[in-house]
Amino acid sequence: MADQWAGRERIRLLNPAFTGATIARATEGYVEVTGSGLPFAYAYLIAPFVLHSETRSKLPGSLATRLLPWTEKFGEVIATFPQRVAELSPYSSKGILLATLGGLAELSGDASLFAKPNASLKRYTGQSGSTEVENILKKSHFVGKWLAAAGTPATVFTALGVRFEDHYK
C-alpha cells in the first residue's frame, strides 16, 4: 500500500501544472532579486532542486549560503544532479508550456521567463492541504532568488555539473 501511495505522490509532483507552478514561483524569486527575467535554461534546474526530497531538504535557509560552497558541502547530492536534470527535463518542458499558456509566466524575446501577477497561485500557497506542496513552492521561490545571486549561467551549470549538450542532442 505504501508503494501505491508513493507512486501517486510521484505522479502528483510530476504533474506538468505543478511543475509549471514551481517554475513560476522560481521566476518570481529571480525577478525580485534581479529585475530581469529568469534565463530559460534555469527553468530546467528548478524541478531537480525542489522535487527531489533529499536535495530540497539540504537547500540553505538563507541567501547568505552561496551556491558554490553549498555544492562543495553536498557533493553527494550534486553527483546525481545532472541525471535528475535529464530525467526531469520532459516534465520541466511541459511545465514551462503550461505556465506560459496558463498565464503564470511569459517568455520574453531574449529567452527569459517573467512571472505574471497571478493571485490564484498565491492563494494556492497556504491552502493546498499538503505541507509538502507548500514547502516545494516556498523552496521554488527561494531557488529563484538563490540562482539570481549565484553568478552567470555558465558558472551555475558548471558548479552543478550540468552540460546541456549531454541532454539535448
Automatic annotation (TrEMBL):
It holds the Pfam family MC3. This is DUF6521 family protein.
